Amino acid sequence: MRRIAAILCTLAAVSSLAGCVPQGKAVGDTQEREPAVAHEGIEQPDMIIGVIGSKDTDVDALVLDAFHDADLQAPYISTNAVTDPVKAACQGVETMTVRKVSVIMVSGIDVTDADRDDWDMALTGAREAGIPVVLLNPVHPPIDDTLFAATFVINDRDAEATPLNEAIATIIDDKPHPRQVTVSTIVS
Fold first, then answer.
1. What are the pLDDT digits (tens) for 136-173?
2. Is 150 helix (H, G, I), strand (E, B) or coil?
3. Secretion signal: which residues (predicted)?
4. What pTM, to 2 d.p., does this model score?
5. What is the SS3 assignment for 160?
6. What angle, 0 to 180 degrees and rounded to 10, lies between the N-to-C axes of helices 164-172 and 57-69?
């Protein structure tokens, strides 16, 4: 009887870990300081950044060029020339979640009362899959800040801006970072 109880407890513990997401924080924003035991993280050639585009295709092009220059894979879903950009963006998040990319970057997100549930559902799916989400130049981010690890604001004129490829690697590797990061599309 004890053996059966032990097996059931073990199965319950293992199954509960499968759906594990950080409590009260976003995936990719779970550390306030470096861990005591260092880890390597994902190698840059293995990183896949799922980019969900915005109305501003010039910004999207800058981002995609920066990832290309850094030899990073960045599949892109455009939301520019579609009938329902929010629906296309949310479906894009779901597609990237199924694809199990390293991180999802949503450009120019503008959450309104009318589409809040759609965004929450799409971003919750990424969260539950353990995929961090970064908002690039957000207009109105989701209210629930556990749905995204950070916001990136592009400023190529800021000498202190973090190169985009380095900032995204910090999120993917779950290293400490501010909630808002000024980034540059100029790759170092």
1. 999 999 999 999 999 999 999 999 999 999 999 999 99
2. strand
3. 1-18
4. 0.83
5. coil
6. 80
**Which of 166, 134, 137 is closest to 150 using CA atoms?**
134
- Comparing C-alpha atoms, which of 185, 117, 105 is closest to residue 148? 105
Question: Which residue is associated with the tokens 């894979």?
Answer: 73
Residue type present at position 122: A
Task: Give the dihedral of Cα atoms 30, 36, 39, 41; nearest 10 deg.
Answer: 20
- Please tell me the CATH code under which domain 44-184 is placed: 3.40.50.2300
Torsion angle in degrees (nearest 10) through CA of 174, 180, 185, 188: -60
Q: Are strands 150-154 and 133-136 parallel, antiparallel or unpaired?
A: parallel
Domain extents in the chain: 44-184
- Taking 3-state DSSP, the helix, strand and coil percentages for the chain, each rounded to the nearest 5, stand at 40, 15, 45
